[in-house]
Each structure stands twice: as C-alpha cells, then as structure tokens.
Write a structure and sequence with these properties.
Radius of gyration: 41 Å
Helix content: 40-55%
Strand content: 5-15%
Distance between the termini: 97 Å
Order of helices and strands: HHEEEHHHHHEEEHHHHHH
Number of strands: 6
Strand order of the largest sheet: 1-3-2
Number of helices: 13
Structural class: alpha+beta
Largest sheet: 3 strands, mixed
C-alpha cells in the first residue's frame, strides 16, 4: 500500500478518496499481471466506496458555495413616498407664555419627522411638528452673539466687510457688576470646618480622606484657587525665598485662567496642612524642586491628577453633610441649610476674597492673591510689595483649624 507523507495529507474526505484511488490503481496493475479472484473481490468492494465518497464530497462543496453569499451593504433609509396622503399633528409647547417675562412665545422654527402608519386599505404619513417657541434663554442669546461675532470677524479678515458691526456693542459702557453673594459667612464657615473635623479617622483610608479634605479646603480658602488651578498645577509650584528682613517665606506659583501665572502666599497654616497631607501619603513633608506630583492626589497609590468633576463632587459632599448637620438643629436652620447645600468650590474662592476684605486686607493684595489681573512685568523686581502682601495675608487671613 502506498503511503502519503503527513505534510502533504489533505482534509479527511479528500485524503480517503486519494487513498482509495491509489489502492484501486495498484490492484488493477496486479490484476493484469495475473488473474486472481481475490483481486476482483477487492476491486468490487473499493470501487463503490470510492463513488460514494466522491458524491459526498461534491455535495459538501456545493453546500459551502451556496453558504458564501456576497456582502450587501445596508440600504439607506429613503424618504416616504410623496404621493401618500399626509396628516399633520402639531406638538405645541405645554406653556404659551414665557415663564420669565410672561410675554407671548414667538415661532422660531420647527422640527419635522415622518412616520408611516398602516390604515386598513390605505397608507398615510403623520407629520410631527414641534415648533421652536421663543424668546431664547439668556445663555442661548449669548451663544448666538458669540457665533455671529465669529462670523463677522471672519468676513472682516477675508475682506468681505469693512468692519465688525458687533464691535460697537462691545464699546458700550459696562454695567457695574452686582455685589458678590455666593459666599459663606464666617459663622457658617465654622460649621463647614466642624463637619470636616468630625470625619471618621479609624482606618488608613479614612485618615487619608480626612487629611486630603483639610488640604483641599485649605487650598481653596487660603489661596483662593479655582478647581481648574487645583487639578492643573503641581507640587513644583512651591518655592521659598527670603524677604528683606531675612525671614524665609513660602510661595505657591499658580498657572490659572487664560494661562496667566501668579504667585500666592503659602502661609504657615497652609504649609502645616501640606506637611500633614504629604506625610499621610508617605511623602516628604515639603515638596522638592521640580516635583511633578499634582497638588491633589487620588486615594491610594495612584499619582495621576484628579479630574475637575471629582473634586467638585468631593466639595459638594462636604456642603451636603454640613446642610444635614444644620437641619438637625431645627426648622429655623432649614433656610440656611438650603443655602449651604447650593454652595460649590467656587463659593470658597468668593468666601476667601470676602473674608480677606472684611478683615481689612489691602484690596490690591486681595486682587493679586485671587489673580483677577495679570502681574505686571515691573512687579518681578519690586519684592517689597510682595513681602508686605505676604505679611498681611499671614497675619490677617487664617483658616483656624
């Protein structure tokens, strides 16, 4: 019997057919050499088997060919035929007057969608019309002005217009900004600090969470930072320099809104909270020059910066716990609790500015601490004003843990 090498073996059915063909050919060669009834019987057994295998193999190939169908791209949805009758259904707003001014709503546009509905013996198309009723919300009006201003500016740069017509509106005298009201009074601020101070501290994770809260609220209050500045700056921003009296003072360099850089006094209270927080994280008490660690770290071993949404949620959770504490004092405190529950991280920035102003801190120092205006080039050489600002901030603006 002829052997087939393993490397050249075909699939099971084809291999058996090839094997039977070789055996039949060999028997036929032997048959012509000398007559033998035994060889005739073997040929009678093998030839029907070969025919059956070839028939099965042909059916398998044809079935596989039928299963390989060409890929058809999904048909795109076409509009409903125009000859079908349409029935229009208008979905008007629930209110017919502006909730702000009480004026009548104006038709600004509409959104139309069509749906095919089967009616016995006929088809019809139902048009769903949702009118856009005005007036626009203030935020939408501002967005529309921004879009129009961008378009007009492009037309001016492209040479289609001589000037931007919206530039005249920007030249009008600005109205005085309203007085800041989104801040926390001194007595409520004491309740917020009490809420943080009574956080659980039994486990390692609870202690790390507690010291992180103290550090976060110290940054937001003592430095007046925005959330974006907390999550977007690193420990490398801390530096120490001597004032003209020879005293070493710590500062924190912050890159904030509009990529403007300012330096904020890092008071003794802030540096103490920083050292406590870093020790709890297993770090050196004071940051090293060029240290790339974020100002605020996640709980655990991760070293990447936290997101603004996460920090916002942490601050809101503290204010919610403070509101719960106030409501437990009785119904007289429910209104105050509702106000505290509305507070956010940006309220702490306003709180810092309000408390500094109330404690007679020079308004120029408050302005520079909060970074309301960029620091001029000359101020890099006039350290006396910075030293006075640091000294006054240190003496009159404390967190009092």
């Amino acid at each position: 019997m002829t052997c087939i090498p393993r490397a050249r073996q075909l699939p099971t059915g084809a291999a058996e057919i090839e094997h039977l063909k070789l055996r039949i050919a060999k028997l036929r060669r032997m048959q012509f050499g000398r007559k033998s009834e035994k060889l005739d019987r073997q040929l009678e057994q093998l030839e029907p088997r070969l025919e059956d295998l070839q028939a099965d193999e042909g059916q398998t190939a044809s079935r596989a060919q039928r299963q390989r169908r060409p890929f058809r791209a999904p048909a795109q949805k076409k509009p409903l035929p125009a000859h079908l009758p349409r029935e229009e259904q208008a979905h008007a707003p629930a209110e017919d007057a502006c909730p702000s001014c009480g004026g009548a709503l104006k038709h600004l546009g509409e959104d139309v969608s069509e749906q095919l509905e089967f009616v016995p013996a006929r088809f019809k198309v139902i048009r769903h019309v949702r009118p856009f009723a005005g007036p626009l919300a203030p935020s939408s009006q501002r967005q529309a002005i921004v879009i129009l201003n961008t378009m007009f500016s492009w037309l001016v740069n492209a040479g289609y217009l001589a000037g931007n017509p919206l530039s005249l509106s920007r030249q009008r005298a600005r109205r005085a900004k309203p007085r800041i009201t989104r801040y926390i009074e001194a007595d409520l601020w004491a309740v917020v600090k009490m809420t943080i101070d009574q956080m659980p501290k039994e486990t390692d994770r609870e202690r790390e969470h507690y010291f992180r809260l103290r550090w976060l609220f110290s940054l937001l209050y003592l430095c007046g930072l925005r959330i974006s500045e907390v999550v977007g700056n690193a420990m490398a921003g801390f530096f120490c320099r001597r004032d003209r009296d020879g005293e070493e003072r710590w500062w924190l360099e912050i890159t904030g809104k509009g990529d403007k850089t300012r330096i904020v006094p890092a008071t003794n209270e802030l540096m103490v909270e920083l050292a406590r927080y870093r020790r709890e994280k297993g770090l050196a008490p004071l940051p090293l020059p060029g240290e790339a660690l974020p100002l605020l770290l996640p709980i655990g071993e991760r070293k990447e910066p936290m997101t603004r949404g996460t920090v916002h949620a942490i601050v809101k959770k503290v204010f919610a716990a403070t509101a719960t504490r106030l409501r437990q004092r009785g119904e007289d405190y429910h209104a105050i609790a509702d106000r505290v529950e509305q507070a956010s991280a940006h309220w702490l920035r306003h709180t810092a500015g309000s408390h500094m102003a109330n404690n007679a801190v020079d308004l120029r120092h408050v302005r520079d601490n909060l970074g309301h205006e960029s620091i001029s080039t000359t101020s890099h050489y006039l350290h006396a004003d910075d030293d006075a600002r640091h000294r006054e901030t240190e003496e009159r603006h404390k967190i009092g843990w």
